[in-house]
Design a protein that fits this description.
Helices cover about 45% and strands about 20% of the residues. It is an alpha+beta fold. It has a five-stranded mixed β-sheet with strand order 4-7-8-9-10, with helices on both faces. Strands 1-3-2 form a three-stranded antiparallel β-sheet.
C-alpha cells in the first residue's frame, strides 16, 4: 500500500527513523515534503497478525455473514494482505473473490420446510465453506512469509512513475480546480464535473461513479477511481453549517474505501465556511493512506 505523509522538513528525519520496513521516496510539494512509504510491517509483527487472523476464523463460525465481527475481520484481513503482500498478489485477489454467500441456481420445495429458512441455511453453509477456504488461504500466506523476507513477498503497484502520477492528481485539485470554476457552485456535481475536465485534459485514465463498495450494510460509490494507481478520489462541497457533517462523511468513506483501495484522496471545495483548515484536515491524520485537501473558492 502506498502510504502518504505530509510532513515539514524538521519532522522528516524523525519520521524516517520511526519506520520499520519501507521503500521510500520523497517529493517536494508547496514547500513541504510528501513521504511515500510502502507499508510499515516488520516480519515478526506480520507473522503474529496472520496467526491472529487465522485464530479469529474459529470465532466467526458462530457468526452470520456480514455481522459486525465478520465485517471487521474481513476489512482487517483485506487491508493486511494488501499492505504486506501487495495489491497485485494472489492472496489479495483470492480473498477479494469471497462473497460469503451462495451464488448459483438452487431449487426449493415446500415439502422441505420454510423457503426463507432454507435460503438462510444455504447461504450460511456457503459462508462457512468460504471461511474454511479463507483460513487455508491465510495459512498458505503464513507459510510463504515464514520462508521469505517480507520485502520479497510484496507485489504492489508503487512504482516511481505511479508515485509521480499521484502527485499529479493532487496538484490538479490543489492548483487548477479553483481556476476553472468561475461561478460559486451550488451542487457537488459541479465540482465533480470540473475535476473530471482536469482529468480529461491531463489524459488520466479514470472511471466515474462506477464502483460500488458494500460496507456495513450500505453501498459506497467513489466519485473517481484511477485503477492503475489503486486510488479513489472523492469530491465534497462545503456549504454553510456543513463542516461537522462533512467530517463524518469523510470518516465513513475512508472506512469503506480502504477495504478496496490502497490510496484515498479527498478534495473539499470550501465556499468559505472552514475557518481552521489544519484542524479540519487533522481529523483524518490517523489514516496514513489518506490525503485531504481543502480548495477555497
Amino acid at each position: 500500500m502506498l502510504r502518504l505523509f505530509v510532513v515539514c522538513v524538521g519532522h522528516l528525519k524523525r519520521l524516517l527513523c520511526g519506520i520499520n520496513r519501507c521503500s521510500l521516496a520523497c517529493a517536494r510539494l508547496d514547500g513541504r515534503y510528501i513521504l511515500f512509504c510502502m507499508g510499515n510491517w516488520i516480519k515478526e509483527a506480520a507473522l503474529a497478525e496472520l496467526r491472529s487472523l487465522i485464530e479469529e476464523v474459529n470465532l466467526l463460525q458462530n457468526q452470520r455473514a456480514h455481522s459486525a465481527l465478520h465485517t471487521r475481520w474481513e476489512a482487517k484481513t483485506f487491508v493486511f494482505l494488501r499492505e504486506v503482500f501487495g495489491a497485485n498478489s494472489f492472496y489479495v485477489a483470492s480473498f477479494a473473490s469471497f462473497d460469503w454467500q451462495f451464488t448459483g441456481t438452487y431449487y426449493f420445495h415446500v415439502t422441505w420446510g420454510d423457503p426463507n429458512t432454507q435460503e438462510k441455511n444455504l447461504h450460511h453453509r456457503a459462508y462457512l465453506e468460504q471461511l474454511d477456504s479463507a483460513k487455508g488461504l491465510l495459512e498458505a500466506a503464513l507459510g510463504q512469509l515464514e520462508r521469505s523476507d517480507i520485502e520479497s513477498v510484496y507485489e504492489g503497484k508503487n512504482t516511481a512513475p505511479e508515485t509521480s502520477a499521484i502527485i499529479q492528481i493532487i496538484n490538479l485539485a490543489e492548483h487548477k480546480l479553483r481556476k476553472i470554476i468561475r461561478q460559486k457552485p451550488a451542487k457537488e456535481k459541479e465540482v465533480q464535473d470540473a475535476f473530471e475536465s482536469l482529468l480529461i485534459a491531463s489524459d488520466v485514465e479514470y472511471s466515474r461513479e462506477v464502483d460500488h463498495i458494500e460496507y456495513s450494510s450500505k453501498a459506497y460509490i467513489p466519485d473517481f477511481v484511477i485503477a492503475k494507481l489503486d486510488l479513489a478520489v472523492e469530491m465534497k462541497l462545503c456549504r454553510e453549517g456543513a463542516e461537522k457533517e462533512l467530517i463524518a462523511q469523510v470518516n465513513d468513506d475512508i472506512l469503506a474505501y480502504q477495504t478496496k483501495y490502497g490510496n484515498l484522496f479527498f478534495v473539499v471545495y470550501d465556499l468559505g465556511f472552514i475557518r481552521d483548515v489544519e484542524r479540519f484536515t487533522g481529523s483524518f491524520e490517523q489514516h496514513k493512506n489518506v490525503v485531504v485537501k481543502i480548495v477555497k473558492h
